[in-house]
Each structure stands twice: as structure tokens, then as C-alpha cells.
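Aggregate trends can hide what the representation actually does to any particular protein. The sequence in question and its C-alpha cells are set out directly beneath this paragraph.
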Amino acid sequence: QVQLVESGGGLVQAGGSLRLSCAASGRTFSNYNMGWFRQAPGKERLFVAAIAWRGGSTYYADSVKGRFTISRDNAKNTVYLQMNALKREDTAVYYCAATGPSYSGSYYYPKAYDYWGQGTQVTVSS
């Protein structure tokens, strides 16, 4: 079992930055592939970014490429999402998710992940 707790959300003006954190506990964090998703009101949960446990390869949704950066600190059992040049359309609840090292499919779909955090709200004002 893996427990995930997100933090760092809040209200920011368009063009500003936020850094989300996701603290993991339970099993060996370094063995898990980690992802960030977001969900706006009335919409489906969408992929934002992912980072692989082996090699640290990163993956991004087209909508955030060049603006968001995912990273991980295995010593602190934490994954981060640095969000720059925020836009109003980035407003959503952001969720951290984890999937084990045996997973070999796409990281882009919620069904790939076994564990989820409770989410943190990000609101971007104009």
C-alpha cells in the first residue's frame, strides 16, 4: 500500500508559478512510476505529467510541455510538479498517482495507476 499526500496548491495570477509536492509513504517510493493528473469541474481526469521509476524518463501532456516540469527526490519520497506560465485553463484539482515497477503500458491513462492522493486545488485568475 502507498499513501500519497499532495500539497502546494492555491490561487495564483495568470503567468505566475506554483510548485506542487506529493509525499509518499508505505512502500519503496523509488520503485514506483509517478504521475500527475488534473480534473476541472464537470470534466474527466486528464494526464499532466509522469516520471518513470527506472531512469527517470519524463512524459508530458502537450498542453503543459515547456511550462511544467515533473521531478522526484527519492531520498525524500516526494515527487514535484513545477508549474510556470500558468494559464486560466490550468485551473483544476491536481492529483498525484503511483503505479508499480512491473507496469509496462502507457502512463497517460488514470487506469494505469494503483494509488491516488486526495488532490490539491489550483486556481489561476486572470
User: Anything to note?
Assistant: The radius of gyration is 13 Å.
